[in-house]
Write a structure and sequence with these properties.
The chain is an alpha+beta fold. The protein has 13 helices and 13 strands. Among the domains are: about 55 residues, DNA polymerase, domain 1 (Orthogonal Bundle); about 120 residues, Dna Ligase, domain 1 (2-Layer Sandwich). Monomer.
Amino acid sequence: MTEAPVRKIIHVDMDAFYASVEQRDDPALRGRPLAVGGSSLRGVVAAASYEARVFGVRSAMPSSVARRRCPELLFVKPRFEVYAAVSRQIHAIFADYTADIEPLSLDEAYLDVTVDHRELGSAKAIAEEIRARIKSVTRLTASAGVSYNKFIAKLASDQNKPDGLCVIPPGKGAAFVASLPVKRFHGVGPVTAAKMSRLGIETGADLRNQSIEFLRAQFGSYAEYLHRAARGIDERPVRSSRASKSIGAERTFERNLFTPDEIDAALAHVATTAWARAERKQARGRTVTLKLRDSNFHTITRARSLGEPVASEAEMLAIGRLLIAPELPVAGGIRLLGLTLSSIVRGHEQVQPGLPLIMTE
């Protein structure tokens, strides 16, 4: 038997995507602190430019807080249809290099380039060419991480932002993870990072020194992920949605969401991303599923099925709002939201009418 080849994974992440699109399209905004989102007292920041991030402005932050941190902050209304169009351009570039593409949102994706279809010689060379083409086509910059698994590739893409590239080969993965603060690990939000700090766990090396029994006692089912991550282990494949039974999107937030306005803004963002993916696949679905995870990593799903496919992004969002309403408020806040379409039909496939129902699990 022959061993499977070491995977070559690229994680591509656009730099301050929404804000960068706005600065690209309006020269007056370039070089200035910018927030995409509502400027009212109850508004929420959907995205922030790097000039705004210097002042501590972040996505999902109430606009009133953002303005206090940066009095000169400029606000622009989001143009999700424009962001979706740019995203389609970017994903068309990805498709020239591999069919194994796993989108995470409008502005980031995993690519498995273990097979070098264009014979460029290395995953690094592929990442460099992809970044150059994105800049040429969209006039926007992307950062990329290249490694042997998804976990490290995602960490690497953030290492040299903006407009950066970072390559972590297999022999250096564990050391790279050990050197990083645990708050940078995907899935470790502020609440978990604070708990780890109280336990004396600040870096990947600190986490690796903990036994699996200790991690289980402190973090429950999340312990297995943390134990593997601290050792640079991630065996998840890149999952293309070519034949998906469902199409959706989810987002983990830098800080937990509490207020109705920020939760609704986040839900709208997720709906836009999910619908853009469905549009790319020319797919529709009869079932909308809401995924919600609280600060204690307790996850619930709520779903509603219709007699006919969901007709629009607005309808998908409306169903999401109906599903989330009975769950609010969430003690400790919301750390993750997701929306998914299932019971998928593509193109001109016919749907057998069904009875509307609500499912919970």
